[in-house]
Amino acid sequence: MCSIVIPCWKSGSWIEELVNRIEATMGSLGEPFELILVNDASPDNVTWPAIQVVAEQFAWVRGFDMLFNVGQFRAILCGFEQARGDYVITMDDDLQHPPEELPKLVRAMRENPDILCVFGAYEGKRHSWWRNLGSRVVGWIMQKAYNKPPGIRTTSFRIMRRELVETLVRYRTSRPLLGPLIVQITRNVMTVPVDHHPRPHGKSGYSLLRLVTHTFDGIIHASTAPLKLFSLIGFLAAGLAFALAIWLFGRWMVGGITVAGYTSTMLVITFFSGLILAGVGVVGEY
User: Fold this and answer.
1) Exposed, middle or buried by CB within 10 Å (0-12, 13-18, 19+), for 109?
2) Is the domain of 158 the same as that of 276?
3) Phi first, then psi: what are they for 260, rounded to 5°?
4) Which of 172, 188, 220 is where one domain is finished?
5) Are residues 164 and 40 in the same domain?
6) Alpha carbon of 262 to those of 184, 247, 250, 268, 270: distances in Å?
7) Does residue 235 sit in the same domain as residue 211?
8) CA distance 273 to 32
9) Which of 76, 107, 116, 184 has the fewest CB atoms within 10 Å of its CB?
10) Structure confidence by residue, pLDDT tens digits, 56-73
C-alpha cells in the first residue's frame, strides 16, 4: 500500500480538486493507497473544514489538525507517524506537484528494490528566478556539507520505503529538514524526471527571509559541517603554535627577544586556544 502525506496550509479552496486528481491517478495503478492530510494550523478557517469534508467522503482519506503551526517538515513527520503503507509519498498541497506524476515515482521504486528513496527531479521549475537561484545554492551546500551523491536533486516530491520513514521518525532534532536527513542516512537514492506546474491557486508561504532561514537551519541543525570547521581551525591553530614555538625559540637563542615571559605566554595562548577549538568540534560531533 502507498501512503501519501501532504502538509496543508491555506489550501482549503482546492483540496477537493487535489483529492479527486489523486484518486483518479492512484486508482489507475490498481494498488491500495491512503491519503493523509495534515493541517498545519491554517488560520483561514477553511482548510481544516475542507479536509474534514473529504475525509468523510472518502474512506481512504485521513485528516489531522495540528494544535499550532509547526512548519512543513514537522507536519510531514506527523503524517509519517500515522502512515501505514509500505511506500510513503510526500508532495505539496499547491498542485505544483501534479498528482498525474505519481506513477513515475511508484514505478521507479518498484523497479529498483535496493533504492530507499526516489526524488522527483523537476524538468523545469515554475518558481520565481530568485527562488530557483536559492535552490541551486542550497543544492551546492548540501553536496558539500552532507556529501550528497552527485547528480541527485532533493525535492519535496518523493517516495520512500517504510524502513527509511521509520528511521526519519526516530531522528529527534529541533528543526528537522528531510532532504539533508535523507542523504545523511542513506546513499541509496535516485531521481526521476517529473513535471513541475505553475502554482494555480494562492501564493507561496515561503518568503525570501524564510528560505534563507531554512538554508541556515540546514547548515547548523542538520549538519556537522560547522563543528568540523571549528575542529579544523583548532588543529591549524595548534600546528601554528608549534611552528611559532620553533621560530620564537630560535629568536630567543640569538637574543632577538628581550621581554621576559613573552615567548612562553604567546606559545601557551596560541596552543591551548587551538586545542579548545578542536575539542569543541570533536565533542560536538560526538
Assistant:
1) buried
2) no
3) -65, 130
4) 220
5) yes
6) 47, 13, 14, 10, 12
7) no
8) 61
9) 107
10) 999 999 999 999 988 888
